[in-house]
């Protein structure tokens, strides 16, 4: 009875301390009321029941499920945020656990053997570790490290499904390890099989996800081309109607109509040319060019690729091509618009082993040839100088830059899939 | 000698071009050689690769086969920026503007609008310009630079870095070099104006030695003129 009481009290204290530590590291406050405390009391009973009366150690699963639900209920936090902070607490807990066990081991060896008091020591040790965790969570340096990690975590493109999958694997491994704690051989086999299964599941999920994305991209491309054709027709009819209006207009009105025709003609031609870009890149290029559609750019596209770009490249190289084309096109458009000639030329062709994309744009201003492509060097007013620098570092991409008089040429070469 | 290479699948246009070239060459007394092709083939490729003579290419854009006039122009410009290219075309203005610049095309002439007169004027101009295609070439780790001598206005020494700055009409380039090294690569039209400045005489309209400046044809005043170099400048 005494052990149950001690265990009960320790679980209550650990809950309070853990929620407090969570609140410290996440910078979100926990409001305690009678209902919250009642839930904690009930959970403590449940944990006692599991630990003493259920032979399979599923504490990890139940503990995580409870904490997640409780934090979601009281703090209204996002799934990813809760998982991140619980993971941090778990890491801190492991560190404290290891340290504590070392101290206890040394104590056992050099002072007094406390292993016979294990049942009493276990809840007391848990309370001490929870309090140490609380102190650590208040430490300014620890909080600073956690904030930085949080920022990096948030920038990862990882969705809730993937996080859940990883969590599930961890919890299963936890149970497997506890069951097989005394059998090293079984433990290693089970651990390896679990990791392998997870990896296969993850790969299948990624492939399925990419297929959905690619199908959507192809569908959007077809839609864009249809929109361009409709736009083409609309502008053509509009220009003809304006010419008709001109015949019955006053002198002032004729000037306004001429201006309108000139403006519509320039963007009309820009849109028409972009249509020739190969499937798989047309959406990206059109989105970039669209911002400059009324700037009077002279854009010519020369496409010698017969099929859509997916058929030439592996998914990885396709991503590299999109990224590099996006960066170089941004630079090309911004420079071209500022020049008098406003020229942009895009060429797509292939040789035996590579897909080659050539961008040529007119430019004006100042260039330091030695610094071109260096980290943080930019010739743009609001640039940061990372774009070209990052492309020069890419392993799957062969990039060359040339300047001829007032034209800047970039050549991107990517290896075709075999 | 000037070599004319005509790539045109329309026999009538070919005959017109032949007559114009013969007429201009006789009037101006220069030696010519004319070759005709109706489409891209191995012989044309050999002509493109051959580097002995100065060439003028007169190309139709739409040709029989897979290779267009534009493709032929790209092949020419892979190694040869000295030759002149004239396109016979009926494309829109945007197409002309872009290709005129990226391929350094001399002219686009429409087939059915003043064709003969335009071609005559162009060939006369080409002959009189004497193929001024000399270039300053600079190679660096991340980018290669080529500028026509005729486009360079002036060059100065950079005060902060050990570099020089080349000024053209709209762009200035900073490169790693000395004024002496770059001066050796240039031709007679470039003169030393100042210890830290070289200028292209073809673009200078006025010299003021007393006040230490010269004025360029774009109106820009450059305060780098030294009396020390007066004799050489006015030679």
Question: Secondary-structure map with pairings?
Answer:
The complex is a heterodimer of chains A (418) and B (235).
Chain A (H helix, E strand, L loop, with lengths): L1 H25 L7 H20 L5 H17 L3 H32 L7 H21 L1 H16 L4 H20 L4 H63 L4 H24 L7 H9 L7 E6 L11 H24 L4 E8 L3 E9 L2 E4 L18 H7 L3 E8 L2 E9 L3
Parallel strand pairs in A: 1-2
Antiparallel strand pairs in A: 2-3, 3-6, 5-6
Chain B lengths: L1 E6 L3 H18 L3 E6 L4 H8 L4 E7 L8 H11 L4 E6 L3 H10 L4 E4 L4 H15 L5 E5 L3 E6 L5 E4 L6 E4 L3 E5 L3 H7 L4 E5 L2 E4 L3 E5 L4 E4 L4 E2 L7 H4 L2
Parallel strand pairs in B: 1-2, 1-3, 3-4, 4-5
Antiparallel strand pairs in B: 6-7, 8-9, 8-12, 9-10, 11-12, 13-14, 14-15
Structure commentary:
With 418 residues, chain A is of the alpha+beta class. Chain A folds into 3 domains: 2-179, no CATH class; 199-274, no CATH class; 276-418, Histidine kinase-like ATPase, C-terminal domain (Heat Shock Protein 90), CATH 3.30.565.10. Chain A is built from 12 helices and 6 strands. Chain A has a 5-stranded mixed β-sheet. In chain A, a hairpin with a 3-residue loop joins β2 (343-350) and β3 (354-362). Chain A starts with a helix and ends with a strand. The mean pLDDT of chain A is 79. In chain B, strands 2-1-3-4-5 form a 5-stranded parallel β-sheet, sandwiched between helices. Chain B contains 7 helices and 15 strands. In chain B, α1 (11-28) crosses α5. Helices cover 31% and strands 31% of the residues of chain B. At the A-B interface, β1, β2, β4 and β5 of A face α4, β7 and β10 of B. β4 of chain A pairs parallel with β10 (171-175) of chain B.
């Amino acid at each position: 009875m005494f052990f149950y009481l001690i265990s009960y009290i320790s679980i209550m204290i650990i809950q309070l301390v853990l929620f407090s530590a969570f609140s410290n590291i996440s910078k979100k406050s926990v409001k305690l009321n009678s209902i919250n405390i009642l839930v904690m009391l009930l959970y403590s009973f449940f944990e006692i029941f599991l630990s003493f009366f259920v032979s399979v150690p599923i504490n990890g699963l139940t503990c995580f499920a409870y904490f997640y639900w409780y934090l979601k209920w009281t703090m209204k936090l996002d799934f990813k945020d809760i998982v991140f902070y619980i993971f941090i607490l778990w890491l801190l807990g492991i560190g404290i656990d290891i340290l504590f066990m070392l101290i206890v081991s040394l104590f056992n060896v050099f002072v007094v053997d406390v292993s016979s008091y294990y049942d009493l020591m276990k809840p007391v040790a848990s309370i001490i570790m929870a309090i140490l965790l609380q102190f650590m969570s208040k430490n300014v340096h620890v909080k600073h490290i956690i904030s930085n990690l949080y920022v990096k975590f948030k920038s990862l493109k990882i969705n809730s499904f993937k996080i859940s999958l990883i969590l599930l694997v961890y919890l299963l491994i936890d149970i497997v390890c506890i069951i097989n704690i005394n059998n090293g051989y079984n433990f290693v086999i089970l651990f390896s099989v679990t990791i392998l299964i997870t990896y296969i599941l993850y790969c299948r999920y990624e492939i399925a996800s990419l297929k959905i994305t690619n199908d959507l991209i192809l569908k959007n491309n077809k839609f864009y081309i249809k929109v361009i054709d409709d736009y083409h027709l609309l502008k053509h009819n509009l220009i003809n109607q304006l010419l008709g209006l001109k015949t019955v207009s006053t002198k002032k009105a004729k000037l306004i109509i001429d201006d309108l025709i000139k403006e519509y003609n320039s963007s009309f031609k820009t849109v028409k040319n972009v249509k020739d870009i190969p499937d798989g890149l047309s959406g990206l290029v059109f989105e970039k060019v669209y911002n400059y559609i009324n700037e009077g750019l002279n854009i010519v596209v020369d496409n010698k690729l017969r099929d859509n770009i997916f058929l030439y490249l592996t998914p990885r190289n396709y991503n590299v091509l999109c990224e590099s084309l996006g960066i170089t096109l941004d630079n090309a458009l911004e420079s071209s618009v500022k020049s008098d000639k406003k020229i942009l030329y895009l060429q797509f062709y292939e040789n035996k082993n590579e897909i080659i994309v050539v961008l040529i744009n007119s430019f004006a201003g100042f260039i330091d040839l030695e610094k071109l492509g260096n980290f943080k060097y930019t010739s743009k007013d609001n640039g940061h100088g990372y774009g070209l620098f990052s492309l020069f570092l890419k392993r799957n991409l062969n990039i060359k830059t040339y300047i001829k008089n007032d034209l800047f040429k970039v050549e991107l070469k990517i290896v075709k899939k075999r | 000698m000037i070599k004319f290479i005509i790539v045109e699948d329309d026999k009538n246009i070919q005959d017109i071009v032949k007559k114009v070239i013969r007429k201009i060459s006789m009037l101006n007394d220069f030696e010519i050689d004319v070759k005709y092709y109706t489409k891209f083939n191995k012989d044309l490729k050999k002509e493109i690769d051959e580097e002995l003579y100065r060439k003028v290419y007169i190309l139709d854009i739409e040709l029989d086969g897979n290779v267009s006039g534009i493709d032929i122009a790209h092949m020419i410009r892979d190694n040869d920026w000295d030759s002149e290219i004239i396109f016979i075309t009926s494309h829109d203005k945007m197409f002309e503007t872009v290709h005129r610049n990226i391929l350094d095309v001399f002219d686009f002439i429409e087939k059915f609008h003043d064709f003969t007169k335009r071609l005559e004027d162009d060939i006369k101009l080409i002959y009189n310009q004497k193929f001024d295609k000399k270039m300053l070439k600079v190679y660096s780790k991340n980018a290669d630079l080529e500028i026509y001598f005729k486009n360079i206005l002036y060059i100065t020494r950079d005060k902060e870095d050990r570099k020089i700055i080349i000024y053209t009409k709209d762009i200035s380039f900073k490169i790693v070099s000395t004024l002496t090294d770059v001066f050796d690569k240039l031709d007679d039209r470039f003169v030393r104006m100042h210890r830290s400045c070289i200028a292209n005489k073809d673009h200078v309209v006025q010299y003021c030695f007393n006040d230490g400046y010269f004025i360029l044809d774009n109106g820009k005043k450059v305060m780098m003129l030294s009396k020390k170099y007066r004799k050489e400048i006015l030679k």
